[in-house]
Design brief:
The protein is an all-alpha fold. The protein has a single domain, classed as de novo design (two linked rop proteins) (Up-down Bundle). It contains five helices and no strands. The longest helix has 55 residues. The termini are far apart.
């Protein structure tokens, strides 16, 4: 008993299509996990920077107006869309800060915290870009391979204008 050629081809095409769908679903799952891990790293970097800002605000090394601006920025909300606004306010407050007034230890800690935020934001936004690119493919949408997972959102905050030397200033996402 032999299988007719058209039937064998149809079975082969179905198997290839199923394998491609499984591969895409697996890749999408890995991208979502990568996005989640990048968010955890970004959140940690933002929390660390907020801690440094609180330390700066209470250290007593700054003039009253700079200290007040930093205290207000340090106590800003940190959830959802409000978080982007709060982080941009922190960035503006830090941008207006005369770093020459800081002790070497605090200046180094602040520069390190800002560098980590920049890198973590770039990594997170790269993961979001890759995830969104795969999710926007027609086959992924038609087969609903993403399930009920929410579309990941970019986290857009201004990069510091004064940061550690050697860190590129161009935007990558």
């Amino acid at each position: 008993m032999t299988i007719p050629l058209p039937a064998a081809l149809a079975v082969l095409i179905v198997l290839v299509a199923v394998a491609a769908a499984v591969r895409a679903a697996s890749r999408l799952d890995r991208l979502h996990a990568r996005t989640d891990a990048a968010w955890v790293a970004l959140d940690g970097a933002l929390v660390r920077r907020a801690t440094v800002v609180r330390t700066l605000a209470t250290a007593g090394e700054l003039p009253a107006d700079s200290g007040a601006a930093l205290r207000a920025a340090a106590s800003a909300a940190t959830a959802g869309r409000d978080r982007e606004i709060a982080e941009n306010e922190r960035g503006r407050a830090l941008g207006g800060l005369d770093r020459g007034e800081l002790s070497a230890e605090l200046a180094t800690e602040l520069a390190d915290a800002e560098a980590r935020v920049v890198i973590a934001r770039r990594v997170y936004n790269d993961a979001v870009r890759d995830t969104r690119a795969l999710r926007s493919r027609r086959a992924v949408r038609w087969l609903r391979l993403a399930g009920t997972a929410a579309w990941p959102r970019y986290f857009e905050i201004a990069e510091p204008t004064t940061g550690p030397p050697g860190l590129p200033r161009h935007r990558t996402s």
